[in-house]
Amino acid sequence: MEINNQSIMQAMEIKIDSVPEKTPDFIQGIRRAPKRELTLNEADIELALMNALRYIPEAYHAELAPEFYNELMTHGRIYGYRFRPEGNISPKAIDQYEATTIEGKAFQVMIDNNLSFEIALYPYELVTYGETGQVFQNWMQYVLVNKYLQVMNNKQTLVIQSGHPVGLFHSHESAPRVMITNGLTVGLFDNLEDFKRLTALGVANYGQMTAGGWMYIGPQGIVHGTYSTLLNASRKIKEGAKDMEGLLFVTSGLGGMSGAQGKAGKIAGGVALVAEVDESRINTRFEQGWVDVVTRSAKEAFDVAIKAKDNKEALAIAYLGNVVDLLEYASDNNIHIDLLSDQTSCHEPYDGGYCPVQLSFEERTNLLASDNAKFKSLVNESLVRHFEAIKALVAKGTYFFDYGNSFMKAVYDAGVIEISKNGVNELDGFIWPSYVEDILGPMLFDYGYGPFRWICLSGKDTDLDATDQAAMDIIDPNRRFQDYDNWKWIKDAKKNALVVGTKARILYQDAWGRTNIALKFNEMVRNGEIGPVMLGRDHHDVSGTDSPFRETSNIKDGSNVMAEMATHCYAGNAARGMSLIALHNGGGVGIGKSINGGFGMVLDGSSRVDEILYEAMLWDVMGGVARRNWARNDASIETCMAYNEQMKGQDHITLPYLATRDFVQEIIKNNK
Question: What is the chain's mean pLDDT, rounded?
Fold first, then answer.
């Protein structure tokens, strides 16, 4: 057989077979990604062009190759702007999409939601959130994946590797319709420098968590977790506190994920003061009602915040400026901050995720494009100042927690060895707790509570109202304080106007809560009470992520650096028939620091889906609770003991016998 581009084209039915006449217009005011660092040598640049042209029929190579080369040299990546649809990409109701299967239509809804102007951080560069978290590497992949989703039948599985559709493979009706991986590299090359090369070559995608897994639902996706974190942090520092009333929370970031902080603080009943250097992000959150007041000086910001705190008023305040300036002002003027954190994109500090205090946002963007070495030096200097400001405030009684954005690791990498717990390296963690280590892990994850979510694919508010009510009816608010918090959350969800993009909802629930709610929703679809529903969760969950600096930071048996839980969760969800499964490298803490996975499950009302829900939903949560139990976490042991009783004859979890450190030390002492 002769292999040439003509025979290759004839051997494919699903392909890009034409090219738009021109690149769509870029709409003024829509955020654009900064230039990414380009470290490719000449041979690699040639390889990157050859790789991008693999999607393009030979007849268009001469036309597009110079365009792709210009994109690579100008932006640091080949995005294939020519193939982006004109204007805003907005999610439509599921019945407005073309596909052979309901899953094919549902996934198109989710992809478009992730890329819409309302949701995406940098829509033209396919970045949904977290500075670099992409849905796909380029627009050719977007076009081709949609073609596959439209023709896929219910006995086929679409395989996607770092945004690239490998192809459709025959499977069966209860197999996943889509299997996704993003950025999984061989250990020797699992580092940031190699990964930058791989992304520039067009062979690796940084999917963040729910960007590359198509399940992002806007900043609402993190509001509930932030709300729960702030509630429990308040209880931790103020005896008898029911919520955040009368407390001040200071943090930074109003982007895709961090944009939840002001809203969450207000819902929790406190005052949230959030620093942000990008005025466009502040404007977005203000227009959405996610911040109430915009301030432009540190003095004005704290004046507004202290007045609201003294009046026990719930308020979300944005400060246009750098958080380092804000914290230094607080320290210099002896202003007490109750709760302190940070949610800049410190997993990518040298790629635009952290703006040095010495620069304005515009200067940051320009320097990134012109002098990366100088930018990196300024980032390191700023991180040292940031650390010193936090240290001074903590000494005065502030409770600081790392919000899982790799902030403390970035400080350590900037040369501050003092931030490491053992004063030598980062292996034992850092001097201040991660929010999972101190709050979310022991109070929620260890019991199985995590960020369950759903999307009403009809696009109807009435469907979202009905699912909110059904979920609330299932929760027993008197069982645990966590259940009361979650019940109150869903009761007030509509009032709090959380929806941005698709009609979606997030609700922290445990294994049985998620399972029972999922089965109820499928029953409602079956009875015609609501349209189809997509279930999912954040990868940042009980079982979905292995990350020693975040999700597994409260696992103390030494296995916090192992990546087997997330991998088993992914494989188990595949075996049990979830509609979509995803496994990623990186997430919110950066390449090489996390393996994370998630799922999507389309509810069509069928008994087949009922069976999958019963088999998969419990597994998706309890696999992680089982691992936490084996690490000797008390709440997880208690939860697993109850589960063994409930599931006698079906499931059985191994429980640990306990030996105290004192006992072991005595044995060692006596046997030396």
Answer: 96
> CA Rg, the chain, in Å?
24
Q: What is the rounded distance in angstroms from the CA atom of residue 644 to the CA atom of residue 631?
A: 17
Give the per-residue pLDDT at 308.
Answer: 98
Q: Which long-range contacts (CB under 8 A, 24 or more apart) does 134-137 make?
A: 134/163, 134/205, 134/206, 134/207, 134/208, 134/211, 134/212, 135/111, 135/163, 135/207, 135/211, 135/212, 135/214, 136/163, 136/205, 136/212, 137/77, 137/162, 137/163, 137/164, 137/199, 137/202, 137/204, 137/205
Element (H, E) at 226: helix 220-237
Q: Is 497 left (phi over 0), alpha (psi -120 to 50) or beta?
A: left
Residues of the chain scoring pLDDT < 50: none
Element (H, E) at 317: strand 315-320
Q: How far is CA 390 from the centre of its chain?
A: 25
Q: What are the CA-CA distances from residue 364 to residues 132, 246, 296, 338, 372 (Å)?
A: 16, 36, 19, 30, 10
pLDDT per residue as tens digits for the range 452-489:
999 999 999 999 999 999 999 999 999 999 999 999 99
pLDDT digits (tens, 9 = 90+) for 344-377: 988 889 989 999 999 999 999 999 989 999 999 9
